Amino acid sequence: MAKLNTQKEYAAFVLQVKQNILQSRYQAARLANTEMLWLYYNIGKMLSEKIAANNWGAKIIDSLSADLQKALPGLHGFSTPNLKRMRAFFESYPAIGSTVSSQLPNNKKSLGTGKKTAGSGTVKPDVVIGSTLSNQLQKNEMLKMFFSISFSHHSLIATKLKTQEHRLFYIQQAAQHQWSYRILEYHIETALHKKRKALLNNFAHTLPVKMKDTAIEAFKDEYLLDFINISEDDDERVLEKSIVDNIREFIMRIGKGFSFIGNQHRLEVGGDEYFTDLLFYNRHLQCLVAFELKRGKFKPEHAGKLNFYLNALDGQFKLPHENPSIGIILCKEKNNAVVEYTFKSISNAMGVATYRLSTSVPQKLKGILPEPEELKKLLG
Questions:
Q1: Domain segments of the chain as ranges
Q2: What averages of pLDDT result for each successive group of 10 residues across the chain (380 residues)?
Q3: pTM of the predicted structure, to 2 decimals
Q4: Greatest CA separation found in the chain?
Q5: What is the predicted pLDDT for the residue at 113?
Q6: What pLDDT score does 373 carry?
Q7: CATH number of 200-356: 3.30.930.10, 3.30.360.10, 3.40.640.10, 3.40.1350.10?
């Protein structure tokens, strides 16, 4: 008898999950990321709670996946590994559900355990949140970021990181900088949370008070340019061309709010021509941002040249409502003491960052693939 009751409860549970999926599908032809994450989170919650309450073994997830496929032929995204990830997703952030629910109107509920309809044995799912959830999330910045990254991102974060503090750090960074899965994976593997440093800059005495904090947040001390394949002998022009050819990738690396204006932007001063390497506009800072590229080590004269360019940009291109232009020297390496002494005589806002190219072959492929330099020679 007990076994029969368990079978009935399990059958009701399968029906319940199926109806939640269908309700979410009805909400939109294609699930928006927020709706999909909320669905996955709640299915993970249901799995976690049912397995704990009924002492179900791990194989129940295999059975659920197979039964969902039978109930909803052609269903994608609910394989055994994915259902396990949903359970881990919920167990990584058990408090998120109550936080979201507390922000919803009283007549809206989260996708959840469902209720039996009076006089029948069918399970009626709770009201689907739909646009209400999306609207409410806009009011909570952290929740907005939480629901803005993909389930794959969340699975990676939950699997690789053990503390909430570190998980939230990477959620925030991935959302703010629109990291791809590969970039997120790289930053986790290289432990960005342990070594993140502010850009070496002179913003404290060159920018208006209202801009300082935003400017510091907008730039990083080091940038990964792993989409570029150049040799040690290639000069700044080759580096610049590689960046321009992959400008979308570069903008994703440098952060949010940047729009590309052009490369080798012409400045005319006293009848002579000068050219900035890369020129951007940042919507959040409301200013022009000039990048100067250096293949070698930072030298004091680099800052003097960029300071001149910034004077020309402010004098000729800055609009009255815009903030002072900012310059970034992007070089292979720098000596912080040299940079600090150089900044003492610089009047415009400036920072010095380094870049890194991903030039090593992954460990598991060593001995199979040639090193990048060798491959480049083979390809001519």
A1: 2-148, 200-356
A2: 68 84 58 81 91 82 90 87 93 78 51 43 38 53 85 94 91 86 86 76 92 89 87 89 93 87 96 97 96 96 97 96 96 95 94 80 50 52
A3: 0.61
A4: 96
A5: 43
A6: 54
A7: 3.40.1350.10
**8 Å CB contact between 125 and 114:** yes
The per-residue pLDDT for 374 is 57
CB atoms within 10 A of CB 313: 23
- Burial grade of 326 (CB within 10 A; 0-12, 13-18, 19 or more): buried
CA distances from 342 to 297, 336, 350, 374 (A): 14, 10, 11, 39
Q: Which residues pair with 198 in a beta bridge?
A: 220
Return the bridge partners of 276, or none: 265
Determine the pLDDT at residue 194. 75
